[in-house]
Design brief:
heterodimer; A: 257 residues; alpha/beta; B: 418 residues; mainly alpha; MetI-like fold; two-stranded antiparallel sheet; binds adenosine-5'-triphosphate; binds magnesium ion
Chain lengths: 257, 418
Amino acid sequence: MTEPYLRIEKLTKVYERGQVLALDALSLDVEKREFLVVIGLSGSGKSTLLRCINRLIEPTSGRIMLGSVDLTRLSPERMRKMRRRMGMIFQHFNLIRRAPVITNVLTGRLGYMPGWKAMLGMFSKEDQDRALESLERVGLREKAYVRADELSGGQQQRVGIARALMQEPEILLADEPVSALDPATSHSIMQYLEWMNREREVTVLASLHFLSLARRYGTRIVALKDGQRVFDGPPAEIDNAKFKEIYGEDAEEVEVR
Amino acid sequence: MQGYPEGYLSERPRWTTPAGLVNLIGGPLGLVGRRLSMILLDMAAVALLWVLVTYAFLWYVHGDIGYTVIPWWLFGLFVFELAAAWNSFGVAPSQRLSGVHLVPSEGGRMTVWHRLLHFLAWHVSVLPIVGLLGRRPWHERLSGTRTKRVESGAIKPAPWYRTSVGIYAAVILVVVVVAALGVTVSMANLRRLVTDAWRAGNIWRAFFSPDTTILQTVVRDLLVTFFMAVLATAFAVVVAVPLSFLSARNLMKGPVGRSVYTALRGAMSITRSIEPIVWAIVFLVWVTARRAPFAGVLALVVHSIADLVKLYAEQLEGINPGLPEAITATGGGRLAVLRYGVLPQIINPYISFTLYRWDINIRMATVVGVVGGGGIGQRLYAYLQGHMYSQAGTAMLLIVVLVWAIDYLSSRIRAKLA
Ligand SMILES: Nc1ncnc2c1ncn2[C@@H]1O[C@H](COP(=O)(O)OP(=O)(O)OP(=O)(O)O)[C@@H](O)[C@H]1O
Ligand SMILES: [Mg+2]
């Protein structure tokens, strides 16, 4: 029997403030090169799950095995090294707003530099070339020296993707990557993620709010409710009954085209 | 929620609630102690009000701060009665603190009758103390009332001025303002403000006939003041920037961090509350008066540090955590997060605050000079002392020009940075 690529075992997170049980002994196996979409109502624990994986949030209990390494037990320094292999993109992009696009993309290399070089912003020539390449890849080469906050939302998210590309990640964590974007732009961003998944063999874990997007791009869908898994399977298996179970009786499905 | 450890929801430490805190204080004495400490709290509030009122009254009658002249037992009785009345007819501080109010034990609405009985029963229950024993104290049993927890979210809160705390605060405010008027303004002073206006008129006239022969001296002193402000601000920034990181709540986590944070913030607010002019006097004594501008600079440095640390730290506390998170997620270490996650968010506000403080320091340097801290302030003071009003006028005119120019410059730059 082979080990799964990423194995989450009885992961529990209790937020001290407010005493919220955000993840309730959640177990999940993720295979390499999967495009896993996490869906669920607001507050169901999607963000908490994704952030526990790269330990932006410390889990309360449970294990996260990447291969044979238990991420929850790594020292801060080893975890930092591990994070280099995990890209992350965010709903609100989290870019340095006043800095040029190229600087934002270069921050993707910070994990590979000694602290003092990072502090002085001494990026190597290769890194700078690579940054331009990444920007080329997301179609923003000509915006390289424009301030990040002068870009549209969709362009900013592409900068976020370019930053993640710089890490040469094996895993991409995307927390509601398109929630702040219009439908057409959403598709273009999702297609970049799909490209990373197919061409770069990156395992993607993305949380999404629209089921239609989840169906279109996911190879597998996991639904959360109150920190527990209520559905796990291929997109085609989510029928009307399942949908009502995940989103509640009164929910109507909305399409994003 | 299922599979949830029971304790997480129910076992919130008791002392984290106000009621629990009262319990903790009265705890060792048990129920009686707890009830007694509540009553003592109300009596303390009443006593404070009484003392303030008598002080204000004595100011008016004797023109002088006095001591309560009534016998202590009368004072005690008054305090006791008022606390009883407050508990019976209003919502006393202790009741508010523990989140309870008085309701009839058999349901229905509170009547004046209930309240009167509660007030009278208070005397036979609280005075001998034994009445506080038991599940329901005597005064509640005798008056057919009980205290009930108020579900804070469920009832519409009364506007603050209708609550007894609001009234209490209002009474204290009125008393304090009246007393303050009494000690600072006298009728004779008010009369002089009008009748002696001509005397000031001479001074004003002299002010507006500038003496150009002293221009060189004044400008030199003005430059000294300017450099004092620059130097003080520069020194203060060097110290305040690192301190601000240690004074930001969101960066200082854990028990050690929290105590450093508390100690620093406390020290800074004490330092800030002492005016630069007082610091100047302290440093003048310390470094001797011969090197006067140095003492002035030190005074400004100390005060600026305290001020800047607060402003900087508040800026740090307000940063968007998303960016440092994103840098952490790339695998960046502490320095990288600092440089790319925190710095871009604070650099402009820091510069802005520094300019703002520099602007204040120009004005402060003048004031500090008056007590002997050097620069234009000292010169101005000397002119005024020597009744050289037209020279003083010249100095003041130039001060106004400098302050205005710096103010304009710094606000323009700050607008650019925003
Ligand atoms: N920092 C926090 N402190 C306290 N409680 C939190 C914190 N972050 C999240 N929670 C709570 O944990 C639960 C799960 O939150 P989470 O953000 O993971 O949900 P989500 O599925 O991502 O929701 P959304 O779709 O709104 O982003 C919620 O009940 C939320 O209120
Ligand atoms: Mg979320």
